[in-house]
Amino acid sequence: MPGVPCGALQHHTVPIACAIICSWLLILVHSAFCQKPAKLPLVGRKPFLAAWNAPLDMCTLKHNINVSLELFHIRGSPRAVHTGQNVTIFYANRLGYYPFYNEQGVPINGGLPQNSSLEAHLHKARKDIAHFIPSEDFRGLAVIDWEFWRPQWNRNWHKKDIYRQRSRELIAQAYLNVTEEQVEELARLRFEKSAMEFMQGTLKLGTQTRPHGLWGFYLYPDCHNYNVHAHNYSGTCPLQESQRNDQLFWLWNSSTAFFPALAIRKDHMDSICNLHFSQNRVLESLRLASLTSLPYELPTFVYTRLGYRDEAMAFLTQKDLIHTIGESAALGAAGFVIWGDLNLTSSRHNCSKVKAFLNYRLGQYITNVTQAAEICSDLLCQTNGRCVRRDPQAPHYLHLSRGNYRILSNWNGTFTVIGQQTKNERQMLADRFRCHCYQGYEGERLAKEPLWHIITQSGFNVCDFAILKNYNCYNGAVC
Known about the structure:
CATH topology: TIM Barrel
Helix content: 25-40%
Distance between the termini: 29 Å
Number of helices: 13
Shape: globular
Structural class: alpha/beta
Number of domains: 1
Largest sheet: 4 strands, parallel
């Protein structure tokens, strides 16, 4: 993914051989050189984390069905009785005094952010954080799920229009002899200012009290590419929506992680539309992740589900697992989070279905993609970065080859991988993927070995080439 334009080389007289080599080097490492480094992973050097955020503990408590979650690097149940988890989700009623209108139109905590006390909200939010995340050394995901309103006036459409209506009423009651246009503008300004203060203030509180956690809002960034029924649907984020996302710089700059969602519908099962939908949502998140004032790109953790949005117990097919989890890994996301609600555990039958899905299709696929991501990271980045598809639209995935690997299911719900890569497969990885290095590491492994051989045999000091100073994401060499 290209970043800001790179500076042009000065015009000096150099030997022809050196000029040719420099030209090739610039082409090969352009994207890595211009791109901010990635934030170090939460867990070791795991380039693609699998996270669990569903109440599966109820299967044990209610139905005596034990389901292993060992294949997930980090886990947490969204049930309020659980605290101290490394995946913690804050619903509307669990973090401060979040203002909203319920489905009956009754205001809760003032209804509108401009009609609620930010100070009281933050005071209670501090207590709620201490309760749900007691450890000050918390190193997990802290996800705030506030979905009743959006911080931008123009995005509060359909059911959310109540926030615009009530904001107008508040202004009309406070001011006399104002025009409709003035009411609209004042209402918009006050709503957006207060919404920003609530969201930004809550993130600031979270990052101050639990600074090692990754804080962000569920569903953000949103691409708003939901028109999947459109003819020739491409999934591209509408230009207007990308521009609105750019205007939320204050939100991205206050976050320490992004949590976009890939909830797909059953009536598009196995459809290329699901691929387009997911791909563009992840790409939009990755684009915005590089725009903050931080020296690294914010990590993107994609929220997905076991099943389809409109039928929770109809689990994703192999193709749709690739369209969501596989696509996220190939594009360079830091990981994924599987979310679910109590419907998954409402009966013994449902618990058995979830267990079977985890023990076979889903478990095998997660093992496949996370192991392939690690192998690629080791090969191209020496474990100091994650592999990213060179062409974002190419049908290339971080998968173990069927011919050389086997994934075995173990009795305890874990999996064993047997096999190794061939030389041709290693070359194919290098051709299709590049390395996005972690903080403290720079450079991309130059997979074109003959070119590297030319440089090292030519008598040039490699350290003279700034773009190769930390070749292969390695920071140990002293130049």
